[in-house]
Write a structure and sequence with these properties.
By secondary structure, this protein is of the alpha+beta class. Helix content is 45%, strand content 22%. The protein is elongated.
């Protein structure tokens, strides 16, 4: 039995649930009889323990189980009776007054999903981005790939790649191997000494003053100089202090970048070493990356537009759940990066703003999908997986990987549904084209 649903505020509701004692007693007795078949007690054979002893041993546990199930059933019945779309879980509390005879009463307080009102999409202004992959981007990418495969040769020592030129002193781009020792007020400090320490000049691994001191030195030469540690230096013991360093150069090596030839192409997966095919592969990869980022940028614009024209209240329980989920995701990400997060506070409230956006968009998208039938089709899901798989060496294996797991396919389905919503809004809204440079696009991180 259940009373009428009471509206507290906005989305919060409350209902009284009555559990008949007779129903509970009947179910408890039935379950205790089942337990009695296998119950054990000193002096009795299994299944021959008196019911009073079985009740004394298991009664309170069984009563708790039955009561929880009956309350849950009562709540589900009243939810179905009043067509309630319950958000999260109800808060169940005993009711101490106004109980019906022969019943135990509880109050269930909960939130319901909101009504989502979406305004005229024709008035939504969307910026759709465009970006082009030119030969210049391909050339830049090839340079990056060459730098990733750089190898070093001692300056002045002639080999198949040359000797690095007549200047054997250390310059930006060279790799130097040094011994160094640092002192503050004439005393060596922790971390201020190393032997055979190698680093590339100009990469910023060392403080600028340290790198500058090494420039111009040749193998075997030494130099003493002073260096000021920044106030915000990560080593607190030396932060803001001045140290005297002596460095001794043990080797100077020049950087040799691989030539743009068949060997480079083969190292990038082009079996026959064809340079044009290498460029075509690079172009294809860049265009896929650009396409993905352009989609993400446009999607963010669509989501921003939907948030402006939609009216809804956000269930507090969904906001709290998502904030806690984001906090745990952040904690796990930091743990995976090797950071100690055991004693680090992660209050979920820090993620409330992000959670609010995510929950709002989830409810808005759900409404659009339901009203306009934007669910993902099997063909769409298959096409999405196949297109995604093209970026891998063995696309067929990737497709098999996704279609072999329902959870992975569900994730793809969610992405396809998002695409359907984006395309639907773009068709309805006021769309302006925006050209974004390749470099700007690659440097941006989009929020959905």
């Amino acid at each position: 039995m259940a009373t009428a649903v009471e509206t507290l505020e906005k989305l919060e509701r409350r209902v009284t649930l009555n559990v008949l004692m007779s129903d509970m007693d009947t179910e408890v007795e039935k379950r205790l009889k089942v337990r009695a078949r296998t119950a054990k007690a000193p002096g009795f054979r299994p299944g021959k323990v008196p019911m009073k002893m079985v009740s004394a041993q298991y009664g309170s546990v069984v009563q708790g189980e039955v009561l929880n199930e009956l309350v849950d059933r009562a709540f589900r019945e009243v939810s179905a009776e009043h067509n309630l779309r319950v958000a999260g879980y109800p808060r169940i509390e005993p009711k101490t007054d106004g109980n019906a005879d022969g019943a135990i009463a509880f109050q269930a307080t909960f939130e319901v999903y909101p009504e989502v009102k979406i305004g005229d999409l024709a008035g939504v202004e969307i910026e759709r981005s465009k970006s082009e992959v030119t030969d210049a981007e391909i050339d830049k990418t090839i340079d990056i790939l060459r730098k990733q495969r750089v190898h070093f040769h001692t300056k002045g020592a002639h080999d198949a790649h040359g000797d690095g030129g007549p200047d054997t002193s250390a310059q930006n781009g060279d790799r130097v191997t040094v011994d160094f020792v640092g002192k503050i007020d004439g005393v060596e400090f922790a971390g201020g000494k190393a032997d055979d320490y190698a680093f590339v000049l100009g990469e910023g691994r060392m403080l600028a003053e340290f790198e500058q001191a090494a420039i111009g030195l040749k193998t075997g030469e030494a130099k003493t100089f002073t260096m000021n540690f920044p106030d915000d230096y990560h080593g607190k013991d030396v932060a803001g202090k001045t140290a005297e360093f002596t460095i001794t150069v043990k080797n100077v090596e020049w950087a040799h970048l691989p030539d743009i030839d068949a060997n480079l192409a083969k190292s990038l997966g082009v079996a026959d070493g064809d340079l044009q095919k290498m460029r075509d592969d690079i172009r294809g990869n860049l265009e896929r990356e650009v396409g993905g980022r352009v989609k993400a940028k446009t999607k963010t614009s669509v989501m921003d537009g939907l948030l402006k024209v939609a009216e809804l209240d956000v269930p507090k329980v969904l906001l709290q759940q998502d904030a806690e989920r984001l906090a745990e995701m952040t904690r796990e990400d930091m743990r995976q990066r090797g950071m100690n997060v055991i004693d680090m506070p992660f209050p979920a409230e820090l993620f409330n703003e992000q959670a609010d956006r995510r929950v709002r968009l989830g409810l808005i998208l759900s409404e659009l999908v339901k009203v306009h039938e934007l669910r993902a089709t099997g063909d769409q899901i298959k096409s999405y997986v196949e297109d995604f798989a093209k970026a891998y060496e063995d696309p067929k294996q990737v497709v098999k990987y996704y279609f072999g797991d329902r959870q992975r396919l569900a994730e793809v389905e969610a992405l396809v549904i998002e695409e359907n919503v984006v395309n639907f809004v773009l068709f309805k809204a006021k769309v302006t084209e925006s050209v974004v440079s390749f470099d700007e696009l690659m440097s941006n991180t989009q929020q959905s």
